[in-house]
Amino acid sequence: MGIDLGLKVPAVLVTSTGKTKFLGNGRKNKYIRRKYNSNRRKLGKLKKLSAIRKQRNKESRYMKDQNHKISRHIVNLAQHEGVSIIKLESLTHIRKTTRTSRKNAKNLHNWTFYQLQTFIGYKAAMAGIQVIEVNPAYTSQLCPACGVKNKAKDRTYQCSCGYSAHRDRVGAINIMRQPVIDGNSRSA
Ligand SMILES: [Zn+2]
To answer: What is the pTM of this model?
Structure first.
């Protein structure tokens, strides 16, 4: 199984058995982040520091809850499909690759990705499924059908060979096919 993490679609997973699943609600997450940000700004003007902290905690709890739900869904589906290895993009590679520059957008909460990866990691470990981090280089660009590099212009990936799919699905397929980084696997 390969998983592509993002802001617009929190997680897209594909399995070698041909299943694709879009998980989470990026639009709602964005709305929630905006709401808490604007609440914090208002409170900032009034110097209500403990109220600001409360707002921040509420937002963290919301994202944590989302990450628990998404990771649970992923691991349940992996078990159901008889998946033995889950591949994720390595977060330590994130700044070095083009695909991740969009993920480093100013409103990105890196800790959210890290938390989701951690949750997937320990839930998978409990289910006896191995989680492996792979180098995400070019995973958003390679055509899964013919191997040519293209840059997705919008949410749809289009190749001159005729292949087209949601860009995050393409990412997940290429992550699934990506070789393992030397010994950089993690089971918890
Ligand atoms: Zn192609």
So the answer is: 0.84
